[in-house]
């Protein structure tokens, strides 16, 4: 046997080791941090250092079952998903929360709802997205137009026509911003399906803000 193959486990060996332990996903085994080796371990460490987070999230553990997918998704995370681009980071989280809610993805809806609140989104905006009330006064007219478009991309992309884009342009969005909104919406539709199929549970991150909102309301009532 080739010594390099013996000494340096490839992605398939890593995946096999992950399957030997209890998985944090209900349906399919993922690559847990304790089982990661080689490129996957390096990418996990890159995630922790780049984003300043001590733990690798469940969705990356799903991607890690195919190291090349994890590598490329890390690039998307660093250069598109979690940075300001043509759209602000807050608008990207707004889109991610809406798409994840519409696709009934508890893990992603919780994670990105939490990020939306962290980036300045209000409790009223989150509640409106969760209720799919996209004309709520919690949003300004420009954001209402963006969310309506994302809703159509998610539910009926085959019906998108130039007229839909013209409405967005009239509302103040540029074509590069609209293009980025399409990419973000479509990518999160993919992520939702991956997480749901693997069976990754919600982290209940939003409980922090829900408790905070309840306490604030109780104080106002006194």
Q: And the CATH topology of the largest domain?
A: AhpD-like
**Oligomer description:** single chain
Strand content: under 5%
Label the CATH architecture of the largest domain: Up-down Bundle
Radius of gyration, Cα only, in angstroms? 20 Å
List the uncertain runs: 1-20
Q: CATH homologous superfamily of the largest domain, by name?
A: AhpD-like
Distance between the termini: 74 Å
Helix content: 55-70%
| Topology pattern, helix = H, strand = E | HHHHHHHHHHHH
What is this structure, in a nutshell?
This protein has 222 residues and is mainly alpha-helical. 68% of the residues lie in helices and 0% in strands. The protein contains 12 helices and no strands.
Secondary-structure blueprint:
Layout (H helix, E strand, L loop, with lengths): L2 H5 L3 H10 L17 H14 L6 H6 L3 H15 L7 H14 L3 H13 L4 H8 L10 H16 L5 H10 L3 H24 L8 H15 L1
Helix pairs in contact: 3-5, 6-7, 6-9, 6-11, 9-10, 9-11
Describe this structure in words.
- The protein has helices at 3-7, 11-20, 38-51, 58-63, 67-81, 89-102, 106-118, 123-130, 141-156, 162-171, 175-198, 207-221.
- 68% of the residues lie in helices and 0% in strands.
- The protein folds into 2 domains: 3-81, no CATH class; 89-221, Up-down Bundle (AhpD-like).
- With 222 residues, it is mainly α.
Supply database-style keywords.
single chain; 2 domains; mainly alpha; AhpD-like; disordered N terminus
